[in-house]
Design brief:
With about 130 residues, the protein is α/β, with parallel strands linked by helices. The chain is built from four helices and five strands, in the order E-H-E-E-E-H-E-H-H. The chain has a five-stranded mixed sheet with strand order 1-4-5-3-2, with helices on both faces.
């Protein structure tokens, strides 16, 4: 396992169907314009994320683009010292037509409500204080 660059979180992937269903059934719900985030306290030392994008979101290229964007935002923005959490983000069809900035705003708002993000907006991408 490689370490994440300074200021970035190493995210694991939530892959097992039983673990994903466990988060979907018992996790806290945070809705937003790009999709639904479910969060449950983590069972491992690192936070894990699963991004679900069904065929309703679009074709394979579109679904993969949405997944990559969500994973990258989570990797950069989840606070490195936040309590480990298991997260499932279920993208909806509107995520396919949203630009990166819109997805960024929507997803970081959900992360902030989930207490996984607590840095001021200006520090998030630039690192300025």
């Amino acid at each position: 396992m490689t370490s994440a660059p300074t200021g970035q979180t190493h995210l694991g992937r939530l892959c097992r169907g039983s673990e994903i269903r466990n988060v979907l059934r018992g996790g806290r719900h945070f809705g937003g314009p790009a999709g639904v985030l479910k969060v449950k306290p983590g069972a491992t030392p690192v936070s894990r994320l699963c991004v679900v994008a069904s065929r309703r979101v679009g074709g394979a290229v579109v679904r993969n683009k949405v997944r990559r964007r969500i994973r990258e935002i989570a990797r950069r923005e989840i606070h490195p010292e936040a309590e480990p959490a298991d997260m499932v983000f279920r993208a909806n069809h509107r995520a396919a037509t949203m630009d990166f900035e819109s997805i960024y705003e929507a997803f970081t708002r959900q992360l902030r409500k989930a207490k996984l993000l607590d840095r001021p907006r200006k520090q998030q991408w630039t690192g300025e204080g």
